[in-house]
Design brief:
- By secondary structure, the protein is an all-alpha fold.
- It has one domain.
- Helix content is 77%, strand content 0%.
- It contains 21 helices and no strands.
- Helix 8 packs across helix 18.
- The radius of gyration is 23 Å and the shape is globular.
- About 3% of the residues have low confidence.
- It comes from Brevibacillus borstelensis AK1.
- This is Transporter.
- Keywords: Membrane, Transmembrane, Transmembrane helix.
Length: 465
Amino acid sequence: MGAELFWLHGVYVLFVLIIIAAMVMKRDTSLLCMIGIAVLGLTATGSVTTAVGGLFGSFIYAITELLPTILVISIIVAMSQVLSETGINETMIKPVSSLIRTPALAFWVIGLVMMAISWFFWPSPAVALVGAVLLPAAIRVGLPAIGVAVAMNLFGHGIALSGDFIIQGAPTLTAKAAGLPVADVISASVPLVIVMGVVTTVAAFWYLRKDMKNGLVAEPLKKIEDSDSSKKSASTLLAAGLRGWIAAAVILLFLLDVYAMFMLQLKGGDATALVGGTALFILLAVTLIAHKQAGLEKVTNHLIHGFQFGFKVFGPVIPIAAFFYMGDSGFVKVFGETLPAGSQGIVNDLGVALAHTIPLSKEVAALALTAIGVITGLDGSGFSGITLAGSLAQLFATALGTGAATLTALGQISAIWVGGGTIIPWALIPAAAICRVDPFELARRNLYPVVIGLLVTTLVAMFLI
């Protein structure tokens, strides 16, 4: 049975329950996580100074683990800024507008474009790009603005972000919390992401088309000046012909990255490094071409913008991740060999004990991970709770003796679909603002499709564990 459970394990479980309760009440959990780390350290060592020092050490450990993810996202946001200000982003996406000829085509084309861009650039920069260029075209063919917002949300902040196959920020977080290789979590997430994506988007389109026929959808915007979007994205920094060549080169470079990942079997950190290096090269080249003599200073400005975004997004994640890393190898790294003799880590010990005391089934474990993902997503940050999902997936999988990757992927998908920007009003304000719709109406319209998708995906996961 491994190490006997003692006070340290009880403290960890107590703070996990407190953190979940705080998330349900929509309260911030950073302070609770920091207190939990200090109490764990004090319980294990009996030393106040070691506990206080361990709190700082846990942050160092968490940042060290998260830094590659923070770095690649920051660089991609910085690159996206220079592409946007030079008009290259608009040039890349504008040909797609010719495919938008009916409301149905508008919904699916905008959704698929949003998904593709979000895989490479992340959803936040993609929202402004897709909305500015394709929203007017969609409204001209009769798709309401709320329909555009739904498509961008579900395909970008839902499908693309929950899988995160290219940048691999989400699976890296959950995999580390669960003690698994990133590639295992990504592989396990593929069927679940497909099921969740298909069910949710088909249900959302069905509801939207039904309400459009019955006249229950708010009137589309009567007039959207094309000049509004052109003022935001048009640029005199580059000639139109040069923008076209650079846009093609950017697309080609990222496609070559994907090809290299498959051919060279690049996964996890290697794949992230390739994407990040490509984005950094594009950032440097485009900035120097567009700004010439001022390029040196502009590169720094774009990087500052990117890092501000990266740490703003991950700032709340660091203390949460720091706490849940204490459940695994992070504890020994921070507090030394202070675990009881024979311990395999706090979470592993709890999993072994759970297997001997509670008849945990695959069905119960799948439902629990979905519920945990939903709860942790209620704060409106899809990333803040996925370390908890990964940690508890490891706990349940240890008790079951199987299904670690599938449970981890299920928790990740549930957390990001709920908190990443699909049904929490304050998380989807960017898409609502771009489309000029009420964020609460957008959240209400996404609610039923997302709930249906989660139920079906959880059912599928039960068979895959």
